[in-house]
Amino acid sequence: MRMLAALILAVGIALSCASCSKQEPGSLTAAAATLKADTLKSIAYSGTGKWFQFGQAPNPTLPWPAFDVSRFTATVGYDAPAARVEMDRIQVVEPARARPAPVQQRPIQLVSGKYAWNLATPAGAAPGSAPAPQPQPAAVEERIMEIWTTPHGFVKAAAANNATSQPMNGGSEVSFTVGGKYRYVGRINAQSQVERVQTWIDNPVLGDTPVEIAYSDYRDFNGVMFPGRIVRTQGGHPVLELTISSVTANPAVAADVPEPVRTFTPPAVNVAVEKLADGVFYVKGGSHHSVAIDQRDHIVVVEGPQDEARSTAVIAKVKETIPNKPIRYIVNTHVHFDHSGGLRTYVAEGATVVTHEMNKPYYEKAWAAPRTINPDSLAKAGKPATFETFADKHTLTDGKRTIEIHHIAGSGHNDAFAMVYLPAEKILMQVDAWAPLAPNAPPPAAPSPFAINLYDNVTRLKLDVRQIASLHGPGIATLADLQAAIGQAKPASAVTSSR
Ligand SMILES: [Zn+2]
I need a surface site. Which of 89, 277, 354, 424 has the fewest CB within 10 A? Predict the structure, then answer.
């Protein structure tokens, strides 16, 4: 955060020297002149295209899933800096992948200095209610990056951060570091256009995550030179593809930080433990849950979600609940980043990762990336990760208790997808295949194909399930609840937070 503040201050000193040295075509100064960067304080651009959900690929070899964008507008201020991005998007349904019916999404995302927030109508609010600000402190880094990687932002940040240039292909390559931490490398072509910008931001799974933006089809939009085509990749796959239809110079940027955002303090990571059976503990307290299983001389943890902060707090609580034993295994349900971002902390603890065989090469490659922006405990420990993998089924046992890990075959959610079953206790652990409804929540209009597939897998494997511990959501459910959710029977009991 201190680095970000430095970045904001550094770039607040606006570029004003575009004309004070000789403008070699293809140089940074020529690019600044082409873009009229010293008279442009803000910009708005609109278009249509595609957005992709980073970290949520349907299997580790596929790109991020696509959404059609029917409306995209970004308003960016360079002096403050601040930005507001909004779009209308809907998920593209891939052939041969059964997903719940996509819903139209209308996110509104803002950043101003060291504050980031979304505007959204709160769940359960009356129709037509005004959107309320939702603080998003973890999004500041990415949204500020989006400002300095725009063509105008890049030349302004380059000028403010002592960029170095070297000639390349009739243009130049310009690089600089912001706040001693965030490296930017840009390519200016022979027409003095910023045609590519590369930078890196932190991610719990990918470490220093490459972000690359390609700008093409530059033209004059009402007196502003701007690319007609923008393609951004993050972590090696596209996250945004836009065809620009309009650009406005120097619009007002409405990014006053709302009071609830300015005064927001992120709560400490909360961890709460609920006993499901002897030696089986549901570790909750946040949006994503784990299960800790007390084996004879070690502990097995199912799921290492989110990030190192969550894992550190969960590990401390697990060790308090089950003292004097090492965590020998961390079982991973799937590679979606919200379910795998905390795995590395367990590896640093000495745990072996149990995951579907498709995921191992992905983690090995991702975890080998540099982690200079935010080194985690595993980066500091320098330990190699060890894996136990499976195609259909894997069993962990201490000679007394058996833990079965099963592939959830044929799910539209993910191809390398696992659930965990305790045959003696008749407990099933799963996530994202089915989310039990909160008490009194209205049932979905149509059953989720993911839930139908989960039930099919439970039936196929003849699992005798008494409790379903979801690793998201409100709590324990029963197989009858799952049957009810897919329209098979009336619920035998409501979802409760305990047995
Ligand atoms: Zn998922």
Answer: 424
